[in-house]
Specification:
Blueprint lengths: L25 H10 L4 E5 L2 E4 H17 L7 E5 L4 H12 L3 E4 L6 H10 L2 E7 L3 H11 L4 E5 L13 E2 H6 L15 E6 L9 E5 H15 L6 E3 L7 H4 L1 H7 L3 E3 L6 H11 L3 E4 L1 H8 L15 E5 L6 H9 L2 E9 L4 E5 L11 H8 L4 E2 L5 E5 L15 E6 L6 E2 L3 H7 L5 E9 L5 E6 L4 E3 L2 E3 L1 H8 L5 E11 L3 E10 L8 H9 L10 E4 L12 H8 L4
Parallel strand pairs: 1-11, 3-4, 3-5, 4-8, 5-6, 6-7, 10-11, 10-12, 12-13, 13-14, 25-26
Antiparallel strand pairs: 1-2, 8-9, 9-19, 14-15, 15-16, 17-18, 18-20, 20-21, 22-23, 24-25
Helix pairs in contact: 1-2, 1-9, 2-3, 4-5, 7-9, 12-13
Length: 547
Amino acid sequence: MSSDLSASPYERLDMGGADFQPLSPVHFLRRSAYIFRDKTAIAYGARRYSYGEFGARCERLAAALIGAGITPGQTVSVICPNIPEMLELHFAVPMTGAVLNTINTRLDAKTIAGILTHGDSQLLFVDREYADVVEAALELSGRDMRVIGIYDPVVDVGRVIGAMDYDTFLAGAGDVPRFELADEMMAISLSYTSGTTGNPKGVVYSHRGAALNALGNVMALGLTTKSKYLWTLPLFHCNGWTHPWAVTAIGATHVCLRAVDPAEIFRLIAAEGVTHMAAAPVVLSMLIHAPAAVKPKSTQPVPVQVATGGAAPPSKVIDDMESMGFNVIHLYGLTESYGQSLICEMQEEWEGLPLANRAQKMARQGVPHVLAGEFQVVDPDTMKPVPADGTTIGEIMLRGNIVMKGYLDNPDDTARASAGGWFHSGDLAVMHADGYAEVKDRSKDIIISGGENISSLEVEEALYQHPDIMEAAVVARPDEKWGETPCAFITLKPDAAEPTADALTSFCRQHLAGYKVPKHFVFTALPKTQTGKIQKTVLRERAKDVG
């Protein structure tokens, strides 16, 4: 006890450490393995692991990593789809104090080489499907890395590479001292927002932030011990929005899915009794437009809760999903905010609205989940909040429990991103009178026509109301008179007839002010990033040649 008698009696309290445990997702698994030891933790085809087995495998994998020389603060990388081994690595690597680096499975060899080098990875786990691209990446990087191959019998593509396979590595675990976390702000994972050439953006998460965002998502998604969560969201993307830790925290069941396929998704929903899933809007669109033969003949007796984010879903997508028996939960976030941090929290009075009107409310980005912290929509030049009038555009800024530790080895970008004590998202939004934010665009995607700001998302929202349009993206096209005008790139629904430009113009005028109506319409497949986001940078270049 402190001998400083000048301190208040509250300050003199001392429990000798008995009143503190560092926050970490590792504790979630240890708890569930103890309490739900016989309950199914992971379902993947014929493979089933109970929580007791899941916990034991992760502890053994952590021991194998320590035995292989991995020490706290080192980086362990993995290139793997949504299979049980990927879930195990999300717990085993943090159990050693090392940092988990999940690499996008769709990246090219050059980008992978850059990530391995910039992150100074010491060990790499590789699923058989990605053997060729990884070997090319290792040759480009010039790194002499130890590689552990993962054999998944579900597929017959690729080959197992590395010093040994995953199961052999796991079986060779010895009796080693367990790492005990002392600092909850210690790094838990490293995720890259883009390629690493020129100006790498390696986003670092802490044990504390991962635990709090996971618990916040338990509440936001309504997860319970009876929940069955289908992995339609890539686990490499923001650590699956921290959902591997969230699902485990509550003792729910992980249903693994190696590749996104609408037919398999609908099958698993029925076969496994799926209650929850998460996906980018592009996956929702795939489900909506899947062939009738693979869709269930009627809606699920209990609606599936589907969280979506990563890009603003048009209200028509929300409308269509709800018509199919899904309840859409709209989330917002970035890699720098542990994935999703804001939620469009449902209000009781919305439930009585017609579906189309309710979908428009639900398309908003919303408010922070209960453990996220603070947010505001401000003028980025003055840092003053914009009026809550639903029209004045500002930038979304975040502060609190779910903001990254920073960009690895990039102090300049870290300082710019956190100027003024707030994380600058780069997303432009309006604030509604009810306190809910609604994203209008990325700052680089705003179209300035004749001095007027045009939200590309607003124009896309109008286009999605057209019965023949499946996907739409609107970008700025240079214009001698107006500076810029909207140019729409459109993918039509299967078997839909191509409408004329005049017909589309007339349709848009029913939903938009005249100056916001696209001056050009291009019918094409839309280019997408590895995580399913439409590549507007590519479309902006194409728009320059549209005549």
